Known about the structure:
phosphoprotein, five-stranded parallel sheet, DNA-binding, Rossmann fold, alpha/beta, 2 domains, single chain, WalR-like
Amino acid sequence: MSGLRILIADDQDLVRRGFRLILEAEEDIEVVADAKDGAQAVALAAEMRPDVVLLDIRMPVLDGLEAARRILQQPGQHARVLMLTTFDLDEYVYEALRVGASGFLLKDSSPEQLAAAVRAVAQGESILAPTVISRMIARFTRQPPARNAQRLLARLTPREQEVFVLLARGRSNQEIAGELFLGETTVKTHVARVLGKLGLRDRVQAVVLAYENGVVSPAD
């Protein structure tokens, strides 16, 4: 992959400059703009059309949550949002995942982790361990009634239901293929259909939706 276009948004000058230096040292990454608040990030995302937006959770004028929501709702916007935070159980991170962010990265991550996360998100992957999602959901949500799970699963075929449950438990496509005795290409097709039928952007949103509706629980 080459020529990834990145937008960085953080109200701390040192953080923005540090991330810019790290990412611009990578041959396949270009920082096209940086913003010091959420409102600037929204405007620059619309203008520059980056591949990935690194978005701080807590910013003045417009916080990262609302900025993420607005960026992801921009017509024709293909950017993926990677939230930056200091705490892995930040309630705003959980809300950001619900609106479509592709994951989050702690600000003290290493340069290698930062570059790897940007590349992964640009390729459509999610940056968030399922165990962290379950901890956040256990903290910020209540156990839903059983009928929620039944209503959600009714939209899927029996095989898609099986794939959805395993996906929600954090299984990779390879692991799902092994458990269900399917080819990885077939699993990819089922995952794409599950996301499409449920109106989801990526696997992170699928995990959140599954936990919120009782399809799986933190105990699983």
